[in-house]
């Protein structure tokens, strides 16, 4: 089966991603070396080899045509050679290249007769030299074919070129390609913004265009699914197919899907203006690998700025006026668009004015050609050029700069490159970088390039030529597919570490058979009510108000009514929040990570360890207040044992920068010598006293529960569910039966007298000190550090009493479950609070009210 080499479980996988990619690179280099040493045996080496194609063709179109024919012939020849020699062929991985347009356009000559015209483009040119993969192209052939006979005959004709058509009707093409792609996405991705429409009817047309866009992407997905084989790599290209990765993953979640954007991805300020931004972004992120890349940006090439800079140079350097010529090739694009028509007129006007000012009867300083050149004429022009001037105002990679360097091995010309072009990152060391908006700077750079010594030209060219020679399109394609393959491996390795979904039936069955059960439940993002934002960004006011899920009230009451079941809500929330949501239930509430505890019919007591140092609170509060003021929509919460700064609702990037600065302020100032833990959430920073964790508090909580219920039989079933921070996941490991016995708590408890059978008297234990926070008033306790050191919950019994293990549950009777967190030390997972609700409803259905207690 194709792709077995990439999916075999027996294939040894290096541990790190870098090691795997380096090894794959080494293997590719060895295969290239073998082909170079044995050209007659190499895959794809025939009379249609690369060199022959370049010699025989007289244009880039012929080059592409022969490449497509040669690819098919090479595959057939390779299979024939392997069959004759009875050897196992080298399994080239199949690559399905999915783009809006095929590399050919179809022209109908009869009912079932077609001719194909080559439509060479940047993507085709980039993949010409790739021989590592068995490539097939999927896309639109540029023609409407409504009849079945025509579709079948065209499919057969295209198959000879290893192309597979997607048949789009005229209305879909108009709405999808001319509409949404070119009218909405293209301007947005080129920083031109969305069209400013003043008619509601036109606004409605945007909706129909997006519907057509999704429909077209689904049609592409249907064709891919029809031709997909296990192990294939599907490579989707550009903004025309942003919805495609999601469609493919919904069809087959194991399909290897990559997406490559040939323009710079717009900044968040631009992208967020797109009405369908979330749906498109989620669709793209369904791909295994997403990369941003290269293509030309027509209207913002900076041609007027370039010509004006040349005028400035001629104005300041009279000696060069009859010695230098600017040859500007301006390939016409979108001649029917008013903005392009205006740009063309503007350029012609500037060129005419400069030639009139500095030209003579026999010479003109600027030669402006509104036309394209064939491959060989363009290469010849690059080769004789002394200085290449690239002044893009906004660009992707800009292949012109690469092409110029590749053709300059003899002359070693100088490249002047816009700092806004993507190539500035790779060719910047050898080029002269300029700001195209600074006309004076560009003019000075022209003079620097023309007067540069041959030694410096040699050094600059050598640096850039080495980069261009080693970073080829073949290397780009092979690296992308290699990284896509490895991304799938990486995902499989991660998934292997992700706990399985909670086995609900087993958990419920063992719950019903146990006699003394303990349920530890988190609150936030576990039992909370979901907030309906109607697809909009998070509603800060609603989400900050934590409320119990309304569908949990019945199940919780049923569970609490079972005397054989003890429920503890263990949360980082304040006491007032837990009081508001759980006051009506018969359960235990453990607030602020278990540092405060009460039975709902009792009063709050503290379980904090002795000598808890809280002297750092005021200084940290000052820092949090400062960053809250300078970070819009952030806030901080003051609790008795911790302080939390939350930037969930702030601008994401700005919030992260502020969080980084805040941490630097904390570590170099208020907490540099303090006994605190800093806990970083996804968008929060919490400072706690050392020892304030849910796991550290649970043994003291258990001690209070055992005493309060006069428990005489051990707990034989534990269920622990929560959306806890990593720091608090020690509560999961606390209950693990497989851990060493010295970690499992031994709670000191007096056994009841055998002759009286009465419960131990209240005098056998020291009463826990009551917090000043009362159940009725919900007021805060004092923030003075002295109020934290007046209780010793874990030492409430005298040491001469008998100890016994309160936890005697077996491994099969322990269910730890993280909610919505795949990186966890819990045994199992539940996806959301809704899943928790469904499970607790089932659990409550097995509860027998008023059953006899064994505790």
- Poorly predicted runs of 5 or more residues: 1-11, 41-60, 81-90, 198-203, 292-297, 740-803, 850-855
| Count of runs of 4 or more consecutive helical residues | 28
Task: Give the overall shape.
Answer: elongated
* Helix content bin: 40-55%
Distance N terminus to C terminus?
61 Å
Instruction: Let me know the largest β-sheet.
Output: 8 strands, mixed
The structural class is alpha/beta
**Mean pLDDT, all residues:** 77
| Number of E-state strands | 27
Percentage beta strand: 15-25%
Q: Largest sheet, order of strands side by side?
A: 18-17-16-15-14-23-26-27
Q: Give the radius of gyration.
A: 35 Å
Task: Describe the structure concisely.
With 855 residues, the chain is an alpha/beta fold.
Structure characterization notes:
With 855 residues, this protein is α/β, with parallel strands linked by helices. The chain has 28 helices and 27 strands. It has an 8-stranded mixed β-sheet with strand order 18-17-16-15-14-23-26-27, sandwiched between helices. It has a 6-stranded parallel β-sheet with strand order 5-4-1-6-7-8, sandwiched between helices. It has a 4-stranded antiparallel β-sheet with strand order 19-20-22-21, with helices on one face. Helix 9 (244-251) links the parallel strand 6 (233-237) and strand 7. The longest helix has 28 residues, at 200-227. InterPro entries: Glyco_trans_20 (IPR001830), HAD-like_sf (IPR036412), HAD_sf (IPR023214), Trehalose_PPase (IPR003337). It holds the Pfam family Glyco_transf_20. It comes from Brassica rapa subsp. trilocularis. This is Alpha,alpha-trehalose-phosphate synthase (UDP-forming). Residues 780-794 have a biased composition (Low complexity).
